[in-house]
């Protein structure tokens, strides 16, 4: 598709060049340049203005030269301009692919192209605004019917340099990317296989620009009065519906490219129709740009200034020097995130969490817990196997009991968090966690775990010696959180029974608080989503912002800093996901927040635990370290194996006939 004067086009930031070649020159059959008619203005606008970038640093020139007068003859005073080999090859390729009379500058197509620097290293598309980049490609004529006839093309290596790039196709609905050198304009058709990751990322950004334009401009059926959420949802649906896309476009990607989209579209204001509003002041477009900027600012940690006495001139020079490096870092970071998103969303049809449990690394959550401490029993504890029901052992239906004044620890008796235990039944466990507490039979009542932190911190085993039987547990297999209203109840399971956890001991209260806090946070997020007209109306980022706005009196308050809130929610994500998975409303379970949280968790340090089929329980000796301590009672000898029938017969006999 050739750019026409009536077709809106946006371009990248042009660089300042020394003596650019005039676009009004034509090529002769011998490859020489002759003057041609100058083009009138064609309605092409700059998407980001005409700002210049700092050129690469070069060695300072000598300022102390010795002058010497010489006499030049008339012959030696004529300066001859010699074209370099690359420019001659580009001229030859343009002439060989010419199909007939054409306007100036000529237009060609590029197939199997790559963009690289002078050393041949591949470079991101947008970095051509900063440094000298060149093109290696198969140059083809501008005839769509000849794209497959590669023999009609001319292979040209390292030609250019690239002057600027442009995006067209706004009226047609399909983005077309152009590259311009001093000699011609080139339509990018197909990148080389080793350059696809660079180009495809840029092309998706270009397609977002086109879709946003068509959603907002009245001349193509758009509505400039839509809200940001409506714009994001509409563009995501439109892009994913395009042939060739596999549903990889997301709201997060759109927001990340918001500033790029804004800079491109505001250049179209002068070519817009009378019925269209100015894009530069359009509220929804400004909101998209500001959302992108705010997200970028939140990801940057505040820097401390060591020396405040800086000169204004020095600051300005430093900022210019850092812009190029920051842009390259940002583009590379965007590309890596885009690749990860493509990989994750490409496998979206296969539920990755069905057979895999993501367990966040202990190092990620260590800052939310106190320093290491060790559990020491204050009284003799009995093995829970003594209270085992043989019927439950073989049927798999274990009883439910209550555990008060409890604590959890590992094989070294070091206090440990419940978060390190998988919350899914059947997940392979890479850590062994034991527990101790006072056991009572379940009375069917519902009570929150550690209702008050102050109450739990003041509780002790000494105050409740008469409440239940002190026991130590076998390894904990799984745990769940039940909630309703203001109640949050934690239940753990061993091979013997389910235990509803009540108040922890004073020593263990700080290890219990983060789990309860995260559980309350999950309830608050579910309530937040239920208040919306659609559960997916709020993305992961939207929920993070709203959580950061909670009052300090709110039980789910984390911080007013968005970065800290996001970190906390992600590293404690399995607690939240488990509560979402158990929620009866499917729209909540499949909300955009839950999907975004899972994606963020996979970006953190984690371990993937595979789900296994439940095997028959085979019990051995209880390996709880309390069993080897002197304060614990030895396990009583197991009675002889019997059956219910034999037991009833002998019980009746002794009840009636024994003296």
TrEMBL record:
Pfam families: DNMT1-RFD. Residues 103-238, 399-549 form the RFTS domain. Its main location: nucleus. It is found in: Nucleus. Keywords: Nucleus, Transferase. GO terms for cellular component: mitochondrial inner membrane; nucleus. Residues 1-62 are annotated as: Disordered. GO terms for molecular function: transferase activity, transferring alkyl or aryl (other than methyl) groups. GO terms for biological process: ubiquinone biosynthetic process. InterPro entries: Cytosine_MeTrfase1_RFD, Prenyltransferase. The keyword Ribosomal protein does not apply. The keyword Membrane does not apply. Belongs to the UbiA prenyltransferase family. This is RFTS domain-containing protein. The lineage of its organism: Eukaryota, Viridiplantae, Streptophyta, Embryophyta, Tracheophyta.
């Amino acid at each position: 598709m050739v750019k026409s004067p009536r077709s809106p086009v946006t371009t990248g930031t042009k660089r300042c060049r020394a003596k650019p070649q005039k676009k009004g020159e034509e090529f002769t059959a011998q490859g020489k340049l002759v003057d041609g008619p100058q083009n009138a203005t064609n309605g092409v606008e700059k998407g980001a203005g005409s700002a210049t970038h700092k050129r690469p640093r070069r060695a300072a020139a000598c300022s102390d030269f010795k002058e010497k007068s010489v006499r030049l003859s008339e012959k030696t005073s004529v300066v001859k301009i010699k074209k370099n080999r690359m420019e001659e090859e580009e001229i030859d390729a343009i002439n060989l692919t010419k199909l007939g009379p054409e306007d100036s500058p000529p237009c060609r197509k590029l197939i199997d192209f790559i963009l690289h620097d002078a050393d041949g290293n591949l470079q991101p598309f947008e970095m051509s605004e900063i440094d000298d980049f060149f093109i290696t490609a198969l140059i083809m004529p501008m005839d769509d019917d000849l794209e497959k006839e590669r023999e009609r093309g001319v292979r040209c290596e390292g030609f250019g340099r690239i002057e600027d790039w442009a995006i067209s196709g706004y009226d047609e609905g399909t983005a077309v990317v152009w590259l311009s050198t001093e000699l011609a304009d080139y339509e990018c058709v197909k990148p080389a296989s080793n350059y696809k990751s660079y180009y495809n990322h840029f092309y998706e950004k270009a397609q977002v620009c086109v879709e946003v334009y068509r959603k907002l401009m009245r001349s193509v059926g758009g509505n400039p009065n839509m809200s940001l959420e409506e714009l994001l949802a509409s563009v995501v649906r439109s892009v994913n519906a395009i042939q060739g896309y596999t549903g990889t476009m997301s709201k997060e990607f759109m927001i990340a490219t918001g500033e790029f989209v804004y800079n491109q579209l505001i250049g179209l204001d002068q070519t817009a129709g009378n019925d269209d509003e100015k894009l530069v002041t359009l509220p929804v477009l400004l909101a998209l740009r500001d959302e992108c900027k705010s997200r970028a600012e939140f990801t940057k940690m505040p820097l401390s200034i060591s020396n405040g006495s800086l000169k204004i001139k020095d600051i300005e020079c430093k900022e210019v020097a850092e812009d190029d490096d920051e842009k390259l870092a940002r583009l590379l970071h965007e590309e890596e995130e885009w690749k990860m998103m493509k990989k994750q969303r490409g496998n979206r049809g296969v539920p990755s969490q069905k057979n895999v449990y993501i367990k966040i690394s202990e190092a990620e959550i260590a800052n939310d817990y106190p320093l290491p401490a060790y559990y020491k029993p204050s009284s003799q504890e009995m093995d829970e196997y003594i209270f085992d029901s043989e019927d439950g052992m073989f049927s798999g239906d274990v009883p439910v009991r209550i555990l008060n004044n409890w604590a959890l620890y590992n094989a070294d008796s070091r206090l440990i968090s419940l978060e390190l235990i998988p919350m899914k039944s059947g997940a392979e466990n890479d850590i062994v966690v034991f527990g101790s507490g006072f056991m009572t039979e379940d009375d069917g009542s519902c009570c929150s775990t550690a209702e008050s932190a102050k109450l739990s911190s003041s509780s002790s085993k000494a105050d409740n010696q008469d409440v239940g039987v002190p026991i130590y547990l076998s390894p904990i297999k799984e745990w769940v959180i039940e909630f309703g209203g203001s109640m949050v109840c934690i239940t753990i399971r061993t091979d013997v029974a389910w235990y509803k956890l009540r108040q922890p001991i004073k020593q263990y209260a700080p290890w219990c608080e983060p789990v309860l806090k995260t559980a309350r946070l999950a309830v608050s997020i579910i309530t937040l989503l239920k208040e919306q007209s659609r559960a997916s109306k709020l993305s992961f980022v939207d929920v993070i912002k709203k959580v950061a706005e909670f009052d300090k009196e709110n039980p789910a308050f984390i911080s007013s800093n968005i970065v800290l809130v996001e970190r906390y929610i992600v590293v404690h994500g399995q607690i939240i996901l488990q509560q979402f998975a158990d929620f009866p409303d499917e729209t909540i379970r499949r909300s955009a927040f839950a999907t975004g949280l899972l994606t963020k968790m996979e970006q953190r340090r984690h371990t993937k635990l595979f789900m296994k089929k439940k095997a028959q329980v085979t019990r051995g000796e209880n390996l709880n370290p309390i069993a080897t301590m002197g304060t614990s009672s030895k396990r009583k000898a197991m009675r002889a194996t019997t059956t219910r029938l034999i037991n009833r017969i002998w019980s009746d006999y002794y009840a009636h006939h024994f003296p």
